[in-house]
Specification:
Elements (H helix, E strand, L loop, with lengths): L1 E14 L8 E17 L3 E11 L21 E14 L2 E12 L14 E14 L4 E14 L7 E12 L2
Antiparallel strand pairs: 1-2, 2-3, 3-4, 4-5, 5-6, 6-7, 7-8
């Protein structure tokens, strides 16, 4: 069993560029996270992380948004992920998990027909990886993702993805 606690504190600085009037904004960034890993019998287990904070787009939080596109205020968010894994043989393993990234809707300005104002992002995945040799891997993954927006005309984006991997490392 492993448990970790991490944090971030600092500031984001942004300066508008012409043709807009000069404006400089300094926003506070903070965040705290708890992560864990449980390995049972060396063959299966769980791992994950939970977080909360603001201005965390640069660390992949808040659906990759740090500042609101209009007000330039820091965006608050909460989320996390969990994944279960099992090693069927030393060379064949599978991982199944999910993540949720939930942004505070009050921190966002709705902008029609844009990618700004993402309020929620989630995914569920499952894969199978076969390490044929130390240097060659074959894998398959199925994923379902969903992203929601504050602007009602920006319809939720959701769909399935299927990915293959043929990796040769040296």
């Amino acid at each position: 069993l492993e448990v970790g606690v991490s944090g971030v504190a600092g500031q984001l600085r942004r300066t508008d560029i012409p043709p807009n009037p000069p404006r400089r904004v300094v926003s506070d960034v903070w965040g705290v996270a708890v992560d864990f890993r449980v390995n049972l019998a060396g063959r299966y287990g769980f791992k994950g992380e939970m977080y909360t904070g603001q201005g965390l787009g640069q660390t992949a939080g808040a659906v990759l948004q740090s500042l609101d596109a209009v007000t330039w205020k820091a965006i608050r968010s909460t989320g996390g992920w969990v994944e279960g894994f099992v090693y069927l043989t030393p060379n064949l393993h599978s991982h199944t998990g999910m993540f949720i990234d939930d942004v505070n809707d009050d921190d966002l300005t709705a902008i029609p027909q844009s990618l700004f104002g993402r309020t929620y992002n989630s995914a569920i995945w499952s894969n199978v990886l076969w390490d044929v040799t130390k240097n060659y891997r074959i894998a398959f993954e199925a994923t379902h993702r969903r992203t929601e927006y504050k602007e009602p005309t920006n319809l939720p984006n959701s769909g399935f993805g299927f990915h293959t991997q043929f990796a040769w490392t040296f």
